[in-house]
Design brief:
Two copies of one chain form a homodimer. Chain A is mostly helical and about 130 residues long. The first copy, chain A, has five helices and two strands, in the order H-H-H-E-E-H-H. In chain A, strands 1-2 form a two-stranded antiparallel ribbon. In chain A, strand 1 and strand 2 form a beta hairpin. Chain A binds a DNA duplex (30 and 30 nucleotides) through helix 1 and helix 3.
Chain lengths: ~130, ~130
DNA sequence: CCGATTGTATTACTGTGTTAATACAATTTC
DNA sequence: GAAATTGTATTAACACAGTAATACAATCGG
């Protein structure tokens, strides 16, 4: 499990773990049904308290990314991939709302915003067609 | 000064004041050079501590929306509303870059993002009353 | 069954953000 | 210059999030 947490990030440890596991699942590096490391082992690896990992796993379970069984372990949920799209939207909508609010305050219309984004996106490397 | 704060919102009082004054300025209901209510008066009106209003004013000053002078008052900054288009773009580009970065990590294409924003923007058409 | 392994619950410590109580400093007004 | 009005600084109270220490409960493996 290639997970790496950092203090400087400002985002809490458990959140970093959540995000990175989500990414591992979404990118296929963690297959459906696969077992994640036990809370104690990952905790030891990352030098944090087992409860911190447990919280991350709990969060992931609440979002349907994984399923956990006492005594057995935590496993990637079978519907990890399809759910992730709604999850993506949810995450993005938070950012989008903030952006739209800012636009409203600046008096920038949605059309102008969309053009700005299109412009800006060209400076990012190929968006790799992401549909799905 | 028609400002209204609520406890249930979850967002801190000073932040609500900041947002609403920003909106009043952006919408022209507060003209350039106009003086805002003294911290104590607005505090009394909203039934909060004067320091809470002071913090909101300080925040607004840091963002260039207002300028404050000890003993005189707090006044809407001359360049509060009419930020240059390039300036607006600069501010928005920061948010946009963060958003695009997030999309890249989530594997969401720009097209999907644009559609999400269009969807989301329709819920911003009714700024009054809309709360769930 | 029994011990080992696993996730879960309870509790407490710590840091940070929000707000308030109070005192201070600058400007206005007379 | 003095009093009133204004913004500012300091400090504390309080709540909450994040994390850790510890004990508990369920499952697995012999």
């Amino acid at each position: 499990m290639q997970i790496h947490i950092t203090e400087a990030d400002g985002t809490p440890f458990y959140q970093q773990v959540v995000n990175q596991i989500k990414f591992l699942v979404a990118s296929g590096r963690l297959d459906e049904g696969e077992q994640l490391p036990p809370v104690r082992r990952l905790a030891e690896q990352l030098l944090v308290n087992p409860n911190t990992i447990a919280r991350a796993y709990r969060e992931l379970e609440a979002e349907g990314v994984v399923a956990s069984k006492r005594g057995a372990g935590v496993f990637v949920s079978d519907s990890g991939s399809p759910l992730s799209r709604k999850e993506k939207s949810r995450i993005l909508n938070e950012r989008i709302d903030a952006l739209l609010t800012e636009c409203s305050q600046l008096g920038v219309g949605v059309d102008s915003l969309l053009k700005l984004i299109e412009q800006r996106s060209k400076k990012f490397d190929s968006p790799r067609g992401g549909k799905s």
